[in-house]
User: Fold this.
Amino acid sequence: MKNNKKSFYQDEEKMRDFMILSKENFLEAYSYITEEEYEETKRQMMIEITTKSLVEEHEILKNSNLIRKMRIEQLEKLWKTLTIMLLILLTLLIIK
Assistant:
């Protein structure tokens, strides 16, 4: 569903002011911007922040799963090595 409401989210200068001014001061400084446009911009900004946060969280989880998988693989290799060493040791003990 496409949103047809106006915003100034892509305007860097206005967004700088948006971040530092109160709503009242912003709307006073940009008298041609409506409260609806201000609220729509705020909504778009919150959606982008939330989306970025979710993507970053997903990457963190994916990386931690990769690390966990690598640790499991390392443990499996260690287990195989220890098993081989034990077999060699037992063989040597039986031969003597």
Notes: The longest helix spans residues 35-95. The radius of gyration is 30 Å.
